[in-house]
């Protein structure tokens, strides 16, 4: 595997990765050519970063995984860079809102995370039969109980976000946070991204607006955070393939976040307090 030039600023930095739904199952398939954050992890380590994936059962409830992630974040005094994809961003956010946890994080990157839910989850879980089948599939894939599937629905996520709006605003004022959303369009999609077009266009017809085939752009943007919107499908920012550059996207995002981190006043990171929920 030919990796891009390393990023010296990452040498010796602690980096934690939080997978999206079924990410650990996809990563297990890397031996047969699948890639899920594997190229990014290899590049981070080639840069000299102390990078590791937090072992989460990705289909478990968001709050249960947030507890595990909070333990990983606070296991060392050194603030880490926290990188997450999709559902992993929900768990990362929940962990960072817990008392004392944000002080152990230097910057938070959320790639394509459905902070306000996904209409795909709404449609699938509307039917008890589909919901039960999805939970059984999660258990079969060994990615958790499936209890976290309902946490991806728009109603659950919107209520969660509204209840914690003040805490989220405080967090994004204390910590560099970058949310990267994406949209897949017929006139720009190439290679494997074109497989997401039917679902993306179906979501648009349902009023979801621009989306990556699973998550609407509007759902992936945290209030108060820095936002990027790219032309890409839901896995294009974390998987290799034609027209994809997951390491290039990650490098640009990390450069932006590290620049933001050094621009903060000395008391701007880890010193403030988050209001209670």
Describe the protein.
- The structure is a single chain.
- Helix 3 crosses helix 4.
- Strand 5, helix 9 and strand 6 form a beta-alpha-beta unit.
- The protein is 38% helix and 13% strand.
- The longest helix is centred in the last third of the chain and has 18 residues.
- A 6-stranded parallel beta sheet has the order 2-1-3-4-5-6, sandwiched between helices.
- The chain contains 10 helices and 6 strands.
- It has 277 residues and is α/β, with parallel strands linked by helices.
Keywords for this structure?
globular, alpha/beta, 6 strands, 10 helices, 277 residues, disordered C terminus, 38% helix, 6-stranded parallel beta sheet
Quick overview of this protein structure:
By secondary structure, the chain is α/β, with parallel strands linked by helices. The protein has helices at 23-28, 38-46, 62-73, 87-96, 119-125, 128-140, 154-163, 165-174, 197-205, 246-263; strands at residues 14-18, 50-53, 80-85, 105-111, 177-183, 226-231.
């Amino acid at each position: 595997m030919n990796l891009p030039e390393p990023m010296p600023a990452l040498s010796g930095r602690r980096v934690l990765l939080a997978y999206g739904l079924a990410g650990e199952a996809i990563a297990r398939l890397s031996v047969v050519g699948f890639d899920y954050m594997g190229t990014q992890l290899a590049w981070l380590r080639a840069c000299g970063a102390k990078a590791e994936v937090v072992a989460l059962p990705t289909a478990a409830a968001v709050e249960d995984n947030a507890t595990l992630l909070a333990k990983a974040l606070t296991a060392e005094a050194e603030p880490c860079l926290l990188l997450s994809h999709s559902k992993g961003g929900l768990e990362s956010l929940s962990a960072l809102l817990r008392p004392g946890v944000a002080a152990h994080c230097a910057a938070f990157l959320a790639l394509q995370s459905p902070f306000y839910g996904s209409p795909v989850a709404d449609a699938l879980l509307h039917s008890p039969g589909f919901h039960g089948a999805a939970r059984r599939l999660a258990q079969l894939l060994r990615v958790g109980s499936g209890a976290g599937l309902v946490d991806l629905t728009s109603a659950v996520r919107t209520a969660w976000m509204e209840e914690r709006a003040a805490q989220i605003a405080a967090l994004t004022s204390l910590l560099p946070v970058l949310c990267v959303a994406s949209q897949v369009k017929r006139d720009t999609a190439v290679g494997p991204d074109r497989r997401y077009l039917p679902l993306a266009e179906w979501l648009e017809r349902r009023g979801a607006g621009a989306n990556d085939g699973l998550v609407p752009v509007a759902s992936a943007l945290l209030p108060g955070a820095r936002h990027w919107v790219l032309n890409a499908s839901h896995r294009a920012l974390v998987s290799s393939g034609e027209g994809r550059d997951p390491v290039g996207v990650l490098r640009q995002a990390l450069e932006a976040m590290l620049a933001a981190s050094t621009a903060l006043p000395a008391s701007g990171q880890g010193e403030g307090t988050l209001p209670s929920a």
